[in-house]
Amino acid sequence: MEHNVCAIELKGITKRFGEVVANDGIDLQLNRGEILSLLGENGSGKTTLMNMLSGIYFPDEGQIFVNGEPVSIRSPKDAFACGIGMIHQHYKLVDVFTAAENIVLGLEEPGKLDIRAAEEKVRTICEKYGFDIDPGQKIYDMSVSQKQTVEIVKVLYRGADILILDEPTAVLTPQETDKLFEVLRAMKADGKAIVIITHKLHEVMALSDKVSVLRKGKYIGTVKTSETSPQALTDMMVGHAVTLNIDRPRYETPVERLEVKGLTVLDGEGVKKLDNVSFTALGGEILGVAGIAGSGQKELLEAISGLCLVSQGEILYTPDGQAPANLVGKTPMQIRKAGVAMAFVPEDRLGMGLVGSMGMTGNMMLRSWKKGPGVFLNRKDPNELALRVWKELEVVTPSTDFPVRRMSGGNVQKVLVGREIASAPSVLMTAYAVRGLDINTSYTIYNLLTEQKMKGVAVIYVGEDLDVLLELCDRILVLCGGKVSGVLDARSATKEQIGLLMTRLGGKEGA
Amino acid sequence: MGNFLSLFLALIIAAITYGTPLLFGTLGEILTEKSGSLNLGVEGIMFMGGALGLGGVFYYEKAAGAGASGFVAVGIGILCAFLAGALASLIFSFLTITLRANQNVTGLALSIFGTGVGQFVGEYMRVRENGYISIGNALKGFFQNSPFPAALQRIPVVGGVLFGNSVFFYLGLILAAGMFFFLNRTRTGLYLRSVGESPATADAAGIAVERYKYLATVIGGGISAVGGMVYIMTIAGCVWNHEGLSGVGWLAVALVIFCMWRPLSAIWGSVLFGALMILYLRLVLPFVPTQLYKILPYVVTVIVLIVSSMRNNKEKQPPASLGLAYFREDR
Asked: Are residues A63 and A137 in the same domain?
């Protein structure tokens, strides 16, 4: 293996978007047979930097070298020609095409389209690295991890030997993540250079050879993974020391707040999305909900908040010092008034809860539009609330009237979660509240949730990162295929236990 | 029974005649929509195609006199109509692809604009040529009669249906088959479909999204416009009639949905719609006003939409990014 010439080298790369400097004089080096982790908070310019390697953006200053040669990458095609392949965070696949059709998309092969030959070539690649996909399968029939595999095969098919993965593990189960890491190690052994963008420090430690850190568009430094620690990396990222442990105080007197009994929810086609789900949520406790994406988390929260039709079961809600009342059959407005709040961060962030073209004030108003005299709206209170959220959660936006659609993802989430907490609920539900957020902001949100818990609020936290679930929550409810596959004490449970519960029922039924 | 059969065959032949303009209109719109452009201006485009196609042939005949060749006349008709439709779609493409205007609004505006241009050109020619625009009988034959020898047309039962139609029906068949092959078997077709399904994916794969959208929309518009010309030259009898074409374009848009964006289905779909268009002439029921007959194609389309969305088949869906503008730096 060649180690003397860098597979890829960046020198003084600078990229500006108008006034904003997204990347400021970045230097980076990567050899063949190495895995580099690119670490940084949200908006620190990781994705921008990698987009310049993959031809989406063009750098304003600086030079990129591939295999020691200066290159100019002006389009995705140029990137392929240099052997650079990027696996985007949001998969770029056409749903109604087969895996093979997606893989040959955009290729300039001579002669007529021969899907059979392409499928054959895909199978060869799969065998070489141990992938498990069927080239003739349609994308819409595939699981998230299979889609990701298609993306990886797509770049390998193009002969890429420099791979960039943008947050590849965000949507995978622990088992799938392990499988992906094995594949990456196999590719590394094959002499490929790999860049992986991630927020999860334990993955950085487990996988990479060296780590480069960016902060606010600036290059901070590169360290060998073997010579560093998660704490040191976090300090580099944030620029000052932060405590990594989530404070988990015990609330003295938990009271029963919400009891769900035999809840069953059907979707439009009569498929059971939730099947006989029963659990209790206590005030003064954070109940984590774990499960593979689409195991019924969304339906659970929607059923409790009255957004989707419950076909069977009861949801008993006990306000302070009052008799339990059944929430099933009440309108979302009534449920909300009773003190049940939901902050749901969907995959596309803006889909549910916020209106993209409205500013912070307008979005705050979505929760209070019934207030105010007669037909007129009360703008003052929402605006004050917006200002408070802006300040306390450090939302980066020019003004409270700036459309939230144009804010960065993390800031959008702060607005959403901030608004829900501000309504002082007695049941607070959040889903994927920290999805795509950097460590610093995530901890702000964890602390906000813990604060609510200590006020006696029953917090239901649907999360993806099992490490966080284990550290943040008091109990963890694991969903699998719409059924409860277990409730664990978060203080004694292990990640493997949860991972098994997440897949157990599905494995039995699906195989 | 024999009487019934001959009535039925006559209905089919008439249905094919009425369906042929729809076939072109629909095929053009399928190509356009496969690229993700929802061009609702088909109505206007077909008006322009009709007026300019007729104008082209009329002035050719006037210039060439008795020596006018039928082949050349048909060619000129197709060419003029195609260019008119392509030009109209170019306006649409510029507004929606380059300037990223809303496709629905732009399409509706184009419908109104195109109808107006078609009416104006048609009426202007009529007035200038002393109130009447018509093509000589010799040339008319080339547009309206079958290109096959009489012997074939006289084959019992099937002869008339298979070989008795105008040349445009056969051109339409070839076009439908060609488009099917293009979309499903060629590399360019695959890329075009990917642009309509997910432009971001196509862009990341290095496909020139804007170029594909422009070409598909402009060529698709041209093909749709030929349908307008076919209507004027066959059904309307080579005479400008400012009301004849109205509604045909909208039927074509409905037919695209009806045949689920599949060119081969457009063939039988257009014949079916053609039959529904003329049913009120052939099947007269007491106390049923003709207007009720005329909504039949739309009723059928609505039923197809309901059935197809209930079955929730992932394959039989509109292109996923249909009607959406694509901007690379959008999130």
From this structure: yes
Whichever domain contains A321, its CATH number is 3.40.50.300
Range of the domain at B280: 2-311
Considering the domain architecture, whether residues A234 and A265 belong to the same structural domain is answered as no
Q: Among partner residues B200, B202, B314, which is closest to A96 by beta-carbon distance? A: B314
In this complex, the residue of B186, B191, B312 whose CB is nearest that of residue A269 is: B312
Is the residue at B322 inside a domain?
no
Q: Report chain A residues whose CB lies below 8 A from the CB of B198.
A: 92-95
Residues A148 and A277 in one domain: no
Rounded distance, CA A270 to CA A247, Å?
Answer: 43
pTM beyond cutoff 0.80 = no
Question: What share of residues in chain B are helix, strand, coil (percent, to 5)?
Answer: 75, 0, 25
* Residue numbers in B near A75 (CB within 8 A): 206
Q: What would the pLDDT profile of A223-246 be if each residue is shown by its tens digit?
A: 888 888 887 887 787 776 666 667
The DSSP H or E segment spanning A467 is helix A466-472
How far is A319 from chain B, CA to nearest CA, in Å? 41
* Chain A residues in contact with B205 (beta carbon < 8 A): 76, 92, 105-107
- How far, in Å, are A15, B2, B273 from residue A18 at the CA level? 10, 79, 54
Task: Answer yes or no: do B314 and A138 touch at CB < 8 A.
Answer: yes
Residues A54 and A118 in one domain: yes
Structural domains of chain B, count: 1
Least-confidence region, from A375-389, A459-473, A486-500: A375-389
Residue burial B46-71, b: 16+ Cβ < 10 Å; e: rest:
bbbbbbbbbbbbbebbeeeeeebebe
Chain A: closest CA distance from residue B111 (Å): 30
A198 shares a domain with A296: no
Show which residues on chain B lie within 8 Å of chain A, measured between beta carbons.
185-187, 190-191, 193-194, 197-198, 200-207, 312, 314-315, 317, 320, 328, 331
Distance from CA of A89 to the nearest CA of B (A): 12
- What secondary structure does DSSP assign to A243-290, as a single string? --SPP-PPPSS-EEEEEEEEEEEE-TTS-EEEEEEEEEEEETEEEEEE
Total structural domains in chain A?
A: 2
Q: In what order do the strands lie in the sheet with A8-17?
A: A69-71, A61-66, A8-17, A20-30, A218-224, A210-215, A35-40, A193-197, A162-166, A84-87
Query: Is A292 found in the same domain as A224?
Result: no
In a domain, A282, yes or no: yes
| Res. A511 pLDDT band, cuts 50 70 90 | very low
Whether residues A269 and A217 share a domain: the answer is: no
Cβ–Cβ under 8 Å, residues B35 and B213 = yes
Mutate to test the interface with A, among B182, B184, B187 (most CBs of A within 10 A): B187
User: Which of A203, A238, A273 finishes a domain?
Assistant: A238
Q: Is residue A128 part of a domain?
A: yes
- For B208-227, write each residue's pLDDT tens digit: 899 999 999 999 999 999 99
Read off the tokens for B289: 């006003």
Whole domain around residue A108: which residue ranges?
A: 8-238
CA angle A320, A322, A328 (to 5 degrees): 100
CB contact (8 A) between residue A106 and residue B193? no
Which of the given ranges, A374-378, A424-428, A461-465, B82-86, has the highest pLDDT on average?
Answer: B82-86
CB pairs under 8 A between A and B: 67
Percent of chain B with pLDDT over 90: 55
Cβ-nearest to A93 among B201, B317, B331: B201
More confident residue, A285 or A342: A285
Of all residues in chain B, the one with the smallest CA distance to A57 is B329
Q: Which residue in chain B is spatially nearest to A86 when comparing CA positions?
A: B204
Q: Which residues of A touch B (CB under 8 A)?
A: 54, 56, 75-77, 80, 86, 88, 92-97, 101-102, 104-107, 109, 112-113, 138, 140, 269, 405
Answer yes or no: is B29 within a domain. Answer: yes
